[in-house]
Design brief:
Blueprint (H helix, E strand, L loop, with lengths): L6 H32 L3 H35 L5 H8 L11
Length: about 100
């Protein structure tokens, strides 16, 4: 024969269930807080990418300057013709344009 469940037993079961749910929500909330604290924002990422881009461009410019000096030295020593120099320096990444 089935025993009828009392109101107190039902209330106790509901209370126990809600306490467990509350504990789980507190845990999930803490986990989300930790994830947010470690998460990279789009603004931060954009800023860092732009900084890196600027650093890379600076390095490329330095190498381009070295290359241009080398071409000019070769031209001074007459190992390159003026047309060779113009042709080489007209190429990227920072082309030198000659106006006639």
């Amino acid at each position: 024969m089935e025993k009828e469940t009392s109101k107190n037993e039902i209330l106790e079961a509901i209370n126990e269930f809600s306490t467990n749910v509350d504990k789980q929500f507190i845990y999930i909330k803490a986990e989300i807080g930790g994830i947010k604290a470690e998460m990279v924002t789009k603004d931060y990422l954009d800023r860092k990418l732009n900084e890196s881009r600027g650093d890379i461009i600076d390095v490329i410019k330095q190498e381009d300057d070295k290359f241009k000096r080398l071409v000019l030295k070769l031209r001074e020593r007459e190992l390159l013709t003026l047309e060779d120099e113009k042709s080489i320096l007209a190429k990227g990444p920072f082309p030198k344009l000659y106006v006639r």
